[in-house]
Write a structure and sequence with these properties.
The chain has 386 residues and is mainly alpha-helical. The protein has helices at 3-6, 10-21, 29-34, 38-64, 72-79, 86-120, 124-140, 143-167, 183-197, 203-209, 217-242, 250-258, 260-293, 297-314, 319-348, 364-380.
Length: 386
């Protein structure tokens, strides 16, 4: 692939990060927030953004400090899984990532098929096929195509959310500061918000695309995650304030309050959210496969996308099952591995003075903070709520 096709603008790089994070999980946040109230939600949102931003910037520094390795699996193998068992551990970690990614991607194909069935009246299988065709075809053309598609899709998502908010203004608005939720409810909310922010494997793509001006990387990552936070906050506050009942999938109760047209807009939002996540995640997976297995771009693309369609066609699990399983697995992997790899690449990386580094915010205190934050996220993904 030519360097021109790999070059991203600032907004395209930010959109890849945002597109990775804006997924179907966002629609579950309002219900979980309603169990605790608006003030706990805002506290969780701010804390989640800061913790997530910190670990995403750690990944950016890791990638910048090694000139020959761009994907996290290879960085883990090079700087953490060393010694006699290193090769085996690297392959084991690769297998876990492959499982989690394919599960997440299959969830988006399954969910997209359901949305197209509901909006267009298509048979479920036809909706799944159409979703896969649109999702996989963009990734076929590589990083630049994904960056452009993410930019326009994220813009459309913001417009749709704005239209839904404007369409709600004639309704009475009521939100409760606190609704009596306990620790389990707050932990579950925290786990879902952290999952919605999680876009770690999109950071190498942002670094690669902005290699022409690497100093823009941290701002692009922060901006992309900021867009995710904006979408989460708009949907959550609106769904909590305008819905007569905050449903487990937010658009159902919110759309019922607005009117029939809102179901179409809400369905388009969820579909676009799934597509943006699919593009970013499958692109990351294709790059991981290319580096780990030394496959060509087209073979890596096919291996990153086709199994996700086959999983859905075979009916291995349902949408929510995929999401919960993948979220918990990725949280644990991140909590355990990113910090020691950062320290390893700082000691042994071949780029001693990268164009940007965390400096004070990459010290031992903040590293420990990140580990604890993601361990709590893993707990939050497993607790039960009413």
């Amino acid at each position: 692939m030519s360097e021109k096709k790999k070059r991203l603008s600032f907004f395209e790089a930010a959109a890849i990060v945002a597109g990775y994070g804006i997924g179907g999980g966002i629609m579950a946040v309002p219900y979980l927030a309603s169990l605790s109230g608006i003030l706990p939600f805002l506290g969780v949102l701010i804390a989640s953004y800061l913790f997530s931003l910190l670990i995403h910037l750690m990944v950016a520094e890791m990638v910048m400090r090694d000139s020959g390795t761009s994907q996290l699996v290879e960085l883990f193998g090079k700087y953490l899984f060393r010694g006699k068992g290193g090769v085996a551990f690297t392959w084991f970690f690769f297998a876990l990532i492959l499982f989690a990614f394919l599960a997440t991607l299959a969830a988006y194909i399954a969910g997209g098929g359901e949305i197209l069935r509901d909006i267009l009246g298509l048979p479920l299988r036809a909706g799944q096929i159409l979703t896969y065709a649109v999702a996989a075809s963009v990734v076929f053309f590589g990083l630049k195509a994904v960056g452009l598609s993410e930019k326009y899709a994220v813009g459309a998502i913001i417009l749709i959310v704005g239209a839904l908010v404007v369409g709600s203004l004639h309704l009475p608005f009521r939100v409760q500061a606190f609704t009596g939720g306990g620790m389990n409810e707050i932990l579950a909310l925290y786990g879902m918000v952290m999952f919605s922010f999680s876009a770690l494997f999109s950071v190498p793509q942002a670094v690669e695309g902005l290699s022409w001006n690497a100093k823009k990387v941290p701002a692009a990552v922060a901006a992309g995650m900021g867009v995710t936070g904006l979408v989460i906050s708009l949907i959550t506050v609106a769904a909590m304030g305008f819905s007569q009942e905050v449903t487990k999938v937010a658009i159902i109760g919110w759309g019922r309050a607005i009117g029939p047209w809102a179901f179409v807009f809400g369905g388009l939002f969820v579909l676009l959210a799934m597509l943006t996540s699919y593009w970013a995640i499958s692109l990351a997976l294709a790059d991981i496969l290319k580096q780990r297995l030394k496959w060509g771009e087209r073979v890596s693309w096919l291996a990153a996308t086709l199994p996700t369609f086959l999983i859905v066609i075979l009916g291995v699990s349902d949408f929510l099952g995929f999401m919960r399983l993948a979220g918990g697995a990725i949280a644990l992997l991140v909590a355990i591995l990113v910090v020691p790899v950062l320290n390893g690449v700082r000691r042994h990386g071949d780029v001693r003075n990268p164009e940007w580094s965390l400096r004070f915010f990459g010290t031992a205190f903040f590293q420990l903070l990140v580990i604890l934050a993601f361990l709590v996220m893993a707990v939050g993904s497993m607790v039960s709520v009413k």
